[in-house]
Amino acid sequence: MQPGDQPDMSQLLQQAQQMQQQLMAAQAEIAATEVTGSAGNGLVVATVTGSGEVTGITIDPKVVDPEDVETLQDLIVGALADASRAAGEVASQKLGPLAGLGGGGMPGLPGF
Questions:
Q1: In what order do the strands lie in the sheet containing 54-59?
Q2: What is the CATH classification number for the domain harbouring 83?
Q3: What is the pLDDT of residues 58-99, one digit of tens each?
Q4: Are 63 and 78 within 8 A, CB to CB?
Q5: What are the protein's GO molecular function terms (predicted)?
Q6: I need a labelling partner for 63 at 20 to 30 A (CA). Which of 11, 26, 34, 79 fits?
Q7: What whole-number distance in Å separates Cα of residue 17 and Cα of residue 91?
Q8: Is the dihedral of CA 69, 54, 90, 110 positive or negative?
């Protein structure tokens, strides 16, 4: 394209639609991916989807102490935080260059 020439709008729209389809496919793949996080050297393991939905918690019976519920609570929070971090990494890897388009659309192109 030469300076001063108008961009080919149909080509731009086609590229935008392709990017939107790639983004939607990546988001679906992320949502279907399960990741785990752990705390206390694996005493508590949390499983979450790439979209952040908690699908499971595994607690080693050794850590269950009725006299010390706070430690168990801390381990659960730690495992969930670790799983959330892992889900974020999966999203970054799967989206790659499309990461900046999620939710905000394409700057300058309304509706995308």
A1: 34-39, 44-49, 54-59
A2: 3.30.1310.10
A3: 999 999 999 999 999 999 999 999 999 999 998 888 887 766
A4: no
A5: DNA binding
A6: 34
A7: 21
A8: negative
Are 34 and 87 a contacting pair, CB within 8 Å?
no
Contact between residue 15 and residue 91 where contact means Cβ atoms under 8 Å apart: no
pLDDT at 59: 96
- Residue 88, classed as helix, strand or coil, is helix
Structure tokens at 111: 């509706």
| Amino acid symbol at 31 | A
* Distance in angstroms (rounded) separating the CA atoms of residues 17 and 29: 18
Number of domains in the chain: 1
pLDDT over 60 (residue 55)? yes
Residue 44 lies in a domain: yes
Mean pLDDT rounded to a whole number for the chain = 84
User: Does residue 39 lie within any of the structural domains?
Assistant: yes
Provide the whole-model pTM.
0.67
